[in-house]
Amino acid sequence: MTWTLAQAASEATREVQWNTVPAMIWLMYLSAAAALAVCCYGFWRRLRIWRLGKPEIRWDQPWRRLKLVFRAALLQANLFRDRIAGFMHISMYFSFMLLLVGTMVVAIHHDLGIPIMRGYFYLYFQSLVLDLAGVWFCVGLIIALWRRYVIRVPRLEHGNPVDGLILAAFFVIVASGYPVEGIRLVVTGDIWALWSPFGYLTGLALASIWDEPTLLVIHRVMWVAHMLSWHVLLAAVPFTKLAHLVTSPLNIFFANLEARSIPDPVNFEDEQAVAVLGIRTPFEMTWKQLMDLDACTECGLCQSQCPAYAEGKPLSPKRVILDLRDHIRANADRYLAAGRARAAGQQDVFEQIMAEMPPLAPDVIKAETLWACTTCRACENICPVEIEHVPLILQLRQNLAMEQAQMPEGVAEAVQGLEVRQHPIRGATTGRTDWYRDLPVRVMAEVEDPEEIEILYWVGCAAAYDERLQRIARALVRVMNRAGVRFAVLGDEEQCTGDVARRTGNEFHYDMLARANIETLQRYKVKRIVAHCPHCLQTLGSDYRQLGGFFEVVHHTQFVQELIDSGRLQLPASLKEKITYHDPCYLGRYNGVFDEPRAVLDRLGVERVEMTRAGRRSFCCGAGGGHAFFEDHAGGKINRNRVEEAVATGAGTICTACPFCLQMMEDGLRSVGAAEQVAVKDFVELVDEALAAAEAQQEPAAL
Ligand code: SF4
Ligand code: SF4
Fold first, then answer.
1. What are the pocket residues of ligand 1 if the criterion is a CB atom closer than 6 Å to any ligand atom?
2. Which protein residue has the closest C-alpha to ligand 2 atom 3?
């Protein structure tokens, strides 16, 4: 008996297209061909739009790129940034893929005449796995419906009827699939029916209500509904958010592997490159930026992390992407016509068409939306498909700032300061070098042999000119002197790195300052730089590379840990304070420095408590992207939001590692009336305090 069953199982299969008539089969092939044609046409149109963009090389290191795709698209690793949404997506994605493979197996078996749908493969995969996959898909679908229509997750787009239609089409596919399978199993008395448990149960339930002739009619109706809903969905893919099934893996493959979140430099000597400054139309975007717009899955994760959005400012990174996408799609024919004219050398026709098109900023994306961005990278960090919001926002700002002279008053003043005094600090009453007059600090220009200097200390404008922030620089100098570090500063030769100019779209001023600083650093053959300001760290270490300035730049948190690890600095575990550490965006998300400051704080013996949003998910202080220099009156205060979270930890001190964060935290504490209870200190001030206390204790002992 066992042998007979095993033999039968090895030959198990089923009849394909059972209970159909030729008209149904014709309808299936015709609608499949039409759906495929519409789908290809839709993607072809998208491809033509991407081709309007400027060239950009994004196919180096193909293996690394394929690994990214494998991790993100196949393992869906990025999606678990939100567990419930991740589970929902993974359920629908994998079960959909399994069902798709199942359909292809049927086509190979039946249409190509290769008999693969048989035996144990038929029983285990084609029957059992696909039967369960349908249920798994239903679980995902129910979660999707519950999130969208019951709890109405705010970060999702609501009110778009197409999204509802997509879910309805999925529902019809699943709801018709089980009756089709179940009726066949029951009516044919299939001996392998139990291998398709849910289909079989459906068939038994239907058979308990209707007789066989009625079941045969229901089967045909369901078969047509199942088949047509598949084909309609296939045709709709490139025209709906389902396009991300194709565009997301592509976008991940072409992700930026190197310096992220910084715009490409502008060659101001190239007349063509400066004909339009920044992005005014899709023609100034790269093909990858245009592809980004089509890759958006509309998941809203970026919006959920955006500090500006959280504080009710007129910015949602998701809407920036979608509004640009919708505008370009709505005007695709005109942009394509302009592209054809340009390719044919008909510059006048091109200009005529483009003269009628509005500038993307401020007509499609409002100026206040762009200025609300703090460039914190929270959006890019969470985006599951590697969309790059920040360079796009900065290049739109470039057009506003450099071509249309539209920028907040404070930004204009800061940029004017850069032009006149090479620093953006308003109302500075001291000179750049006054802060270290009474400290043993060497200046590069006075060092006889620059080779003997192991570290150049880049002070930055904030700590050079602001009285409170000068305490950070002084503390770092004392710590380095204790460790016997041979360091020097540039003194009056140091100019602003240009960070504020670059992040506010004033690329011309950035370019000027960056080139001057690179020239100075190269003249002194500087190899290694320490900066306590994460904005300087980012600009010197990453942005300058685009202009040929290659320097090793470390943050003071990293450097102090290095000094400890090498035994040059012995830290006492004497700070018995409750401290919470705030991750600066430009240190953490931009440069991946999360552990070093925490490790040093732990060595100091502090009771370290984390805020809810910490590390990669840290919440911005509100100062980045030039916001330290202008008052953004729209919405609430980002720094207030952050200090409320810090105060809730019960910590007596907020430790920061960025002078701008420090200022924002102090302002925030004042605004919530907690400035007396909670102190804000830079990381190195705590290190310096602990060392000074230990020395003070040792001195009487030595006496
Ligand atoms: S960089 Fe930060 S502030 Fe700007 S859009 Fe992204 S999340 Fe919002
Ligand atoms: S940009 Fe990325 S994170 Fe934002 S909605 Fe689109 S896919 Fe989601």
1. 305-308, 315, 317, 373-379, 389-390
2. 383
CA–CA separation, 582 vs 597, rounded Å?
10
Q: pLDDT > 90: what percent of the chain? A: 78
| Ligand 2 within 6 A of CB of 298 | yes
Q: Whole-prediction pTM value?
A: 0.90
Domains and CATH numbers, the chain: 61-253 (no CATH), 282-406 (1.10.1060), 422-560 (3.40.50), 578-702 (3.40.50)
Strands of the sheet with 455-458, listed across from one edge = 442-443, 487-489, 455-458, 528-531, 552-555
* CA pair distance 319, 551, nearest whole angstrom: 37
Q: In ligand 2, which atom is closest to the CA atom of 301?
A: 3
Q: Which of 634, 644, 669, 661 is nearest to 311 (CA)?
A: 634
What is the C-alpha to C-alpha distance for residues 476 and 687, in angstroms, rounded to an integer? 9
Distance CA(555)–CA(266), nearest Å, equals 27
Residue 439, classed as helix, strand or coil, is coil
Q: What is the full DSSP assignment across 251-280?
A: HHHT---SSTT-PPP--TT-TTTTSS-S-S
* Ligand 2 contacts CB of residue 321 (under 6 A): yes
- 38: number of CA atoms within 13 Å, CB side? 17
By the 8 A CB rule, do 569 and 512 touch? no
Q: What is the pLDDT of residues 123-166, one digit of tens each?
A: 999 999 999 999 999 999 999 999 988 988 887 876 778 888 88
Give the distance (Å) from ligand 2 centre to CA of residue 78.
12
The mean pLDDT value of the chain amounts to 92
Q: How far is the CA of 617 from the centre of ligand 1 (A)?
A: 12
A 10 A CB-CB count for 129 gives 19
Q: What is the tens place of the pLDDT at every residue in 493-551?
A: 999 999 999 999 999 999 999 999 999 999 999 989 999 999 999 999 999 999 999 99
The tally of CA atoms less than 13 A away on the side-chain side of residue 447 is 21
The per-residue pLDDT for 458 is 97
